[in-house]
Amino acid sequence: LETGSDASVWVTPQNQIIIAYSGTTGGTNLLFNPLIAITQIVTDLQAGLGTGTPLAFDQALAFAEAVKAEAALQGYSSDDIFVTGHSLGAWQAQYVAQQIGLNGIGFEGPGLNSVVPGNGANSLFVNTATYGDMAGFLASDLPGLSPLAPPYVPGGGLKPHYGPIVLLGDPNANAPMVNAARLFNQGPIATLIAAIDLFGNFMAKHLPGVQAYHLDVDQDPGVVPWLGTRRGTIHTGY
Description:
The chain is α/β, with parallel strands linked by helices. It contains eight helices and six strands; from the N terminus they run E-E-H-H-H-E-H-E-E-H-E-H-H-H.
């Protein structure tokens, strides 16, 4: 996939098909594929600040539909296909699940601009949102980031997630993020302080190693395994 989307697909030993969408920069795109890194950042801005669906999301959907069609030819059903991703990848996986009903999990994806009745509350696509990480809270169905996010509406609003949400980490980690968000639009110095504070919390809580820690998963280390704050509740059974 190109123009803001990057995806891989494989079959597990359990004969489950996994479609994984890349997060912004994909970890190494800034070094090895800077063009797609730029388009991914543009996609983040389009989805986060705009009200429409970026082209990259439709490309992610087209990729999933192509995989689904090929899988059907090989005897797989839709129940055998799962979508996943982190950050931008979770955003795209959510959108695909919303549009064609695939199951899966999205790690730290913001809310979607597209809204459907019920917002997938009973679906088998699940989101994670880590306390202190602004990405998952850039949505209308989680509180704390006003005025950066749309008004909070439990289970809905203008930019909700698709599917239920599992909250990870220490709830107290949200306090610095919420306090920083309140500084926005309070003058240039306050806004600069808020941006620095939010970015610091983002780097401490957003990267996938943090979610792996909280879900008791042994992660294949990425390019920056030393980044992130691993502290708080560990959930077992995932």
